[in-house]
Structure formats: structure tokens, C-alpha cells
Amino acid sequence: MVRSMRPTRRPGTGRWPLIGGVLALALAGCGAGAPAGPTLAPILHGLTVRRHAPALRTGLLYTSPDGGFYRDPTYLHVYATRLVPLRAVLPLLPASDRSASRQLAGLGPLYAVVARADNPGAATANISLATTVLESTRTSRLVPAGLRSATARTFYQPIRPIVVLSNQRLDLCSVAVPPGGQTWMVAVFPPVDVRAGVALVAPTSFGFYLPTGAGALPAAIPGNLFAGDVNTCLQQLAAG
Of 9, 66, 166, 174, which has the fewest beta carbons less than 10 angstroms from its beta carbon? Predict the structure, then answer.
């Protein structure tokens, strides 16, 4: 059952203002994406694959290929959440941004969301996890204790993903899911205090609370995942 939640922030604003360059996995230029390869192992290690495993939660997204007349539905099934160490993400970051991400050291594990976008519609759907945020009834309670103000401004206003991965290349933070197709996506967020209750929110679309460290996959994720330059994409979307 989906628990609705009113979004409180607009997408594409205020992300990483203190960081020069890109924080979220810019391995091959803006938005194009590049294979992440075996470096994904620490993030995906231990995920259970069980045929017919149910989704933890499901959100409904709509895209329009003609500017609004036709609305194409796509289901975002969240199958698993997990806590991953910062060291699992550092190899995915360009060298210029690793020092910025080390601001998160000592704050606890990162929060990862594993989802699959299923498009039953008649047109290609452009789906993104890069503009999703983590919230709670009091989002400030998600922020780890002892956080420096500079780190809070960089990573927690709002709480957006640090790394977004997909088995399809990303273009301007989005993945093109063909009609009848499925695409796996993984979003890794900064450390949060899960005791506050963690909700995944896609502004203007859906929001639901997620259990932490739960779930199983109905099929193995393809090993050749791609990573996009999330920060640059969000800046371009905001510039619109």
C-alpha cells in the first residue's frame, strides 16, 4: 500500500552549491553515463534474488511525449533498501569530488534504494531518481547528529542522491524506458538517521515510507550498470 506524502521542495534547486564540479558520478561527461563495472559489487553485494519477490512500495509516474495530451504511466517498484559504507561509493566518484564526499565520513552508512521502472504504456517514458528526495514527518530528524553546517548545506538541503545508477544510459538525469520495457535503478543517498522514518518522495508524483535493510529482487540486476553526472543535470534542469 502506498502512503502518500505532500512534497515540500521543488526539484532541481539548491543542490551542492559549495562543490566545484560534480559530486554524483561524472565518469563520462554530462548526463551520458559510463559503465560502473565491478565497482558496484560493494553496493549490491548480499541482495537476495527470489522469483516473484514483491515490491516494498510502488509509485506511479506520468510522462508525456506530446506535452500533456497523452500521459504515459510508469510504475516505480522499490524492491530493496540497504545501508552501504561510504568506501563503497568513493571508487565511483571522480577524483576531484572524492574529497567533498569525505565530509560524510563518520556520519554512518549511506542509504541505498533499489528500484525498477516498468513502462506498460505506448510511448517511451523518461524516468529519473536524481530528483527524488528523502523526507520524514520532520525531515530535520533525518540529519545525523554532529553534522557540520557546511556539510548540511551541501548534502542535506534537500537530501538528494549522491550516486544514481541504471542499466540504461542516463540523459539529463533521466532513463528512457521503452514501451513494455523495464529498467533497474539504484539511488544512493547521504547517511540519515533511519529512526526518524525514511520516506522516498518524488515531488508532485508520490511519496511513501520505506523499511530499512529490507526487500528482495525478483531477478538479478544486470552487471553492466551506468552512472550519470547528476549535479550537472540538475543544474541544467533548474536553468530550464
Answer: 66
